């Protein structure tokens, strides 16, 4: 395999505001649902909070310097809604917005293209107390916030992501109660999901008026494989595919929801108007893909409403999250997007692994398992490119070890270790590896037998010539 990555391919790393910034109430910012959730005893491992996180709020200049040393040409970050609008609406907090203006300017000075996420799960508490994403007015709230940010940063940010992983906002947030706001109510997720999709559509419409570059969603995807050939497991994997993969993408691309959802939710599934379904058919300019593993699915009548559970294979390598290392699933996911949705432009907006890293030696953290994970997944992306997928970028999750939501600081995904005491950043071997991948335009990740190339083998003309022509709307 020769390196198929084109010269304009984006090589980035990703973070989110609450996970790295720290000081979430500084300089007039308003609290988010994650600030409240993390401060509720028993919600987060070790009762950790994002109060300090990586202290990126004060150390952002040093972090941009790390990005430049890596050779990144893109950086995906999120804006904390409550930093910009402490009440979620109304008066702008100039000091909070200035923080993001300085960050964007520094990135551009180092030749790093900003990829800004508007919403990475941190809804302002003031809006949550008005119903949050259950409130039919929430799409308008989001659009007003988006317009504020577009006016301030739209001339300098070439890539915008509206909402990160709306499925995670919906299911763990409102059905399972594992993540903020911690609700457990079968009737809430369908309404939340619909409002998130309407919010995305309204933000895209606002950007069409105010923006000049590209905007799209970021969705978490994982192929769903039956644990056996039994009809029950096959049907369970299809339900879980509809629940995780097709719920939001079919809405965005086709303006409809998978039929399985009405069966899954039963009487909790509402009727949606034709007008609102037409409005949520709004894919934007690209799809961001967050991929970590596959789902191995077993039928489970004891686990409503899905009646299916994801099981952990006993014969596979697992990350510290107990997720199977399954790089071929990334290729499968990208090819599925090509075939089902007519080969849309794609960016891998998150891909990485948590492992229990050893202490540093001579200033370097050796993390060979993460290096292997990144290597095989970049190879998987290369395979998809060679098969005509319109893939335009890859972002490692994450630049830094950070606050990993309900896992607190117990799970480490970063290319750089962050000392829990003084917040010193220490490079891992994976950072050194990724720097070489970027320098070689992907060739350093390919098998040793592959001749190293600068990576023009899959330019846009080649991708257009080999792309799959039609979507499969089954």
Automatic annotation (TrEMBL):
- Record-annotated active site: 165 (proton donor), 350 (nucleophile)
Q: Which GO terms describe its cellular component?
A: cytosol
Task: State its Enzyme Commission number(s).
Answer: 3.2.1.21
Q: What is the lineage of its organism?
A: Bacteria, Pseudomonadati, Pseudomonadota, Gammaproteobacteria, Chromatiales
Enzyme superclass (EC)? hydrolase
Q: What is one GO biological process annotated to this record?
A: cellulose catabolic process
Pfam hit, one = Glyco_hydro_1
- Alphabetized UniProt keyword annotations: Carbohydrate metabolism, Cellulose degradation, Glycosidase, Hydrolase, Polysaccharide degradation
> Know the name of this protein?
Beta-glucosidase
As its record notes, the protein acts as a catalyst of:
Hydrolysis of terminal, non-reducing beta-D-glucosyl residues with release of beta-D-glucose
Q: Do you know which InterPro entries this protein is assigned to?
A: GH (IPR017853), Glyco_hydro_1 (IPR001360), Glyco_hydro_1_AS (IPR018120), Glyco_hydro_1_beta-glucosidase (IPR017736)
Question: What family name appears in the similarity comment?
Answer: Belongs to the glycosyl hydrolase 1 family.
Q: From the record, give the transmembrane residue ranges.
A: none
Output one GO MF annotation: beta-glucosidase activity
Please tell me whether the keyword Transcription regulation is annotated for this protein: no
**Positions of substrate binding:** 19, 120, 164, 292, 397, 404-405
- In terms of superkingdom, the source organism counts as Bacteria
User: Which residues fall in a compositionally biased region of kind Low complexity?
Assistant: 445-459
Gene3D superfamilies associated with the record: Glycosidases
Where is the region Disordered? 445-474
């Amino acid at each position: 395999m020769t390196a198929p990555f084109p010269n304009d391919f984006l090589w980035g790393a990703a973070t989110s505001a609450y996970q790295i910034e720290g000081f979430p109430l500084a300089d007039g910012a308003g609290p988010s649902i994650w600030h409240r959730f993390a401060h509720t005893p028993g919600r987060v491992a070790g009762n950790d909070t994002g109060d300090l996180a990586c202290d990126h709020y004060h150390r952002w200049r040093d972090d941009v310097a790390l990005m430049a040393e890596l050779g990144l040409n893109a950086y995906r970050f999120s804006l904390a809604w409550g930093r910009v609008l402490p009440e979620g609406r109304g008066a702008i907090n100039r000091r909070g917005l200035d923080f993001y203006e300085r960050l964007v300017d520094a990135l551009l000075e180092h030749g790093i293209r900003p990829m800004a996420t508007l919403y990475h799960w941190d809804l302002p508490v003031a809006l949550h107390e008005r119903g949050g994403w259950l409130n039919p007015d929430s799409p308008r709230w989001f659009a007003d916030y988006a317009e504020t940010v577009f006016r301030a940063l739209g001339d300098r940010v070439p890539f915008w992501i509206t909402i990160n992983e709306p499925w995670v906002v919906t299911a763990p947030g409102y059905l399972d109660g594992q993540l903020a706001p911690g609700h457990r109510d079968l009737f809430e997720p369908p309404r939340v999901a619909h409002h998130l999709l309407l919010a995305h559509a309204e933000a895209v419409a606002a950007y069409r008026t105010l923006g000049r570059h590209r905007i799209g969603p970021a969705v978490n995807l994982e192929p769903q494989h039956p644990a056996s050939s039994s009809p029950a497991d096959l049907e369970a994997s299809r339900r879980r595919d509809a629940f995780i993969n097709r719920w939001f993408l079919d809405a965005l691309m086709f303006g409809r929801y998978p039929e399985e959802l009405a069966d899954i939710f039963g009487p909790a599934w509402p009727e949606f108007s034709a007008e609102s379904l037409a409005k949520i058919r709004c894919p934007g300019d690209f799809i961001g893909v967050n991929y970590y593993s596959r789902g191995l699915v077993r039928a489970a009548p004891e686990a409503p409403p899905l009646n299916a559970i994801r099981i952990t294979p006993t014969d596979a390598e697992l990350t510290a999250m107990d997720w199977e290392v399954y790089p071929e699933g990334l290729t499968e996911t990208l090819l599925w997007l090509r075939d089902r949705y007519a080969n849309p432009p794609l960016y891998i907006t998150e891909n990485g692994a948590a492992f229990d890293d050893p202490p540093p030696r001579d200033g370097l953290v050796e993390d060979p398992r993460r290096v292997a994970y990144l290597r095989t997944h970049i190879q998987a992306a290369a395979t998809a490119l060679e098969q005509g997928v319109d893939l335009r970028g890859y972002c490692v999750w994450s630049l830094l070890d950070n606050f990993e939501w309900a896992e607190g600081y117990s799970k480490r995904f970063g290319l750089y270790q962050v000392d829990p005491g003084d917040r010193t950043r220490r490079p891992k071997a994976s950072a050194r590896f990724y720097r070489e991948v970027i320098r070689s335009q992907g060739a350093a990740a390919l098998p040793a037998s592959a001749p190293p190339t600068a990576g023009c083998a899959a330019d846009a003309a080649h991708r257009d010539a080999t792309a799959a022509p039609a979507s499969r709307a089954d």
